Amino acid sequence: MKKTPATQHSYFAEILNAGMQQLDITIRELSKQLRISCEHARRLQAGEVLPSRLLVEKSAKVVGIPLEQLQLAVERDRILKKYGKHALDKATITTSRILCALVRLHHRGTSSAGHF
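The chain above was modelled as a monomer; its predicted structure follows.
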């Protein structure tokens, strides 16, 4: 009997499932709307495979999730799959620092905009 590896956590699958539950969409309905097989839809929902860019865009429209949120989830899944949790944690910390710096720069720019 062939042993299947344990599926890792999938951020994309987690968000997809939440959107499907909120809209009460079944795997069959999802597969029809995405124009993919039921098996592929099941594997996406289970986090066994990662979607293509086109499938991410279609999924965002079908389940009503912002495209950027799904794209970020897929990128996190790709890092996790390729490099592991340690690399993902490091990438998350770096991304958080960059975002904080951008927010600080934005606030400096808007607070000094009216003081000419």
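Residues 11-83 form a domain with the 434 Repressor (Amino-terminal Domain) fold (CATH 1.10.260.40).
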